[in-house]
Amino acid sequence: VQLQESGPGLVKPSQTLSLTCTISGDALTTNYYIVSWIRQPPGKGLEWMGAITWTGGTFYASSLKRRTSISRDTAKNQVTLEWNAVTPDAAAMYYCGSAFGSPGDLEVWGQGILVPVSS
Fold first, then answer.
1. Closest Cα partner for 119 from 11, 21, 23?
2. How many whole angstroms separate alpha carbon 90 and alpha carbon 83?
3. Which of 8, 21, 30, 34 has the fewest Cβ atoms nearer than 10 Å?
């Protein structure tokens, strides 16, 4: 199983950040399969952002619920994270990870993608 993040190399403040996690080896619709997004701002710890389940249900960290959305494309086996109207605090390393049953007990991680936010 492999997860691979992709997205822009740079985002400007007020733009929308869109990141894609492509999964190979597991199907998004497999029972109990969950894909989470995690971020790590510079100099800070890991922050769980949200997740999408095998049924397409989503849930988010309360601090980010109004700013982000997670969706999926089951045909492409991809999960997308969008963050609208980013501010400089969105700059971080972003990871996607997968688990069976619990969004916090990630079993497989992508390598991560660094997203700077700058005008």
1. 11
2. 8
3. 30
Place of tokens 């992508």: 110
Strand partners, 35: 52, 98
**Residue 43 CA neighbour count, 13 Å, CB half:** 1
Helices (H), the chain: none
β-partners of residue 79 are: 21, 72
Q: d(Cα 39, Cα 16) in Å, to the nearest integer? A: 16
Looking up tokens 């691979």, which residue turns up?
A: 4
Backbone angles phi, psi at 95, to 5 degrees: -125, 150
Give dist(CA 80, CA 36) in Å, integer.
Answer: 10
What would you measure as the largest C-alpha separation in the chain, in angstroms? 42
pLDDT in tens, 49-75: 999 999 999 999 999 889 999 999 999
